């Protein structure tokens, strides 16, 4: 089984067991704060189920109807998870506000705290595991699910502290107050997850990713690569799609142009963190390029070389040759 599928299947199975444990804790205690954690666990199970399906789709090879593959479904999965987290947070706040006005008795808080504490530790371990696998496999779905579980473990820790405080002080309205605070924290994390997924669905530029590609090109640049511009990168699940324009000497024949473009392709795929598909447009050089062209013994040079222009995110992403700046 692929690492991504193995990781998300483990997350799904664990989420189901922990959800049942949290509802047992709620029925024992009748605590709103514990119900908060139990309701969020339903979101965990739903999100992990859809995440498993989205990872299955993302691993399907590209076809005629999906020439860029199916990886973008992972952004939709993260969006759904973020939306479900936010809805759960809103429900928690509304219910807890009602019970703050009309309180009800709660019982056996220490037993409930023990169950919630144990589930928090499990979520912490599984969360870090999913994030590590997600980064290694370039899966936003696994990272999102892992961060969700880390959020759940933090809310569980806060919940345990709140339960102990309630038991020691006998101030029972703190139960609803703690639940409201945890609900706000859940909504905040749901917003962050949704914001990132919407950025991916809208093909928002990943600045760090683009910087990394430019740094690789700059460190390994060849004299024939006069400049690189109009560089763009899009992430589709575990696959990266990059397109750019490369200025080459205009007298290169088609074989030499293909050789240079293939070198760039091998360079990016050999040094990058994920599989990359490149679409490179070759531009012919112009006399205005001569002052920063490093080609030695160029037969058509019209101006002396004055200095290299370092490739940065400012000039490499613009749709213009560097002499136009």
TrEMBL record:
Record key words, sorted: Membrane, Transmembrane, Transmembrane helix, Transport
One GO cellular component term: plasma membrane
Organism: Pedobacter ginsengisoli
Entry keyword annotation includes Transmembrane helix: yes
Protein name: Cation diffusion facilitator family transporter
PANTHER family xrefs: MITOCHONDRIAL METAL TRANSPORTER 1-RELATED
Family annotation (Gene3D superfamilies): Cation efflux protein transmembrane domain (1.20.1510.10), Cation efflux protein, cytoplasmic domain (3.30.70.1350)
Gene Ontology MF terms: cadmium ion transmembrane transporter activity; ferrous iron transmembrane transporter activity; zinc efflux antiporter activity
Sequence ranges assigned to domain Cation efflux protein transmembrane in this UniProt record: 8-202
Claim: NADP is one of the keywords in the record: no
Membrane topology: Multi-pass membrane protein
SUPFAM superfamilies (alphabetical): Cation efflux protein cytoplasmic domain-like, Cation efflux protein transmembrane domain-like
GO biological process, one term: intracellular zinc ion homeostasis
Transmembrane stretches, start-end: 7-29, 41-61, 73-94, 106-129, 149-166, 172-191
Family affiliation: Belongs to the cation diffusion facilitator (CDF) transporter (TC 2.A.4) family.
Cation efflux protein cytoplasmic domain ranges (all copies): 209-285
A Pfam family hit: Cation_efflux
Protein's cellular compartments: Membrane
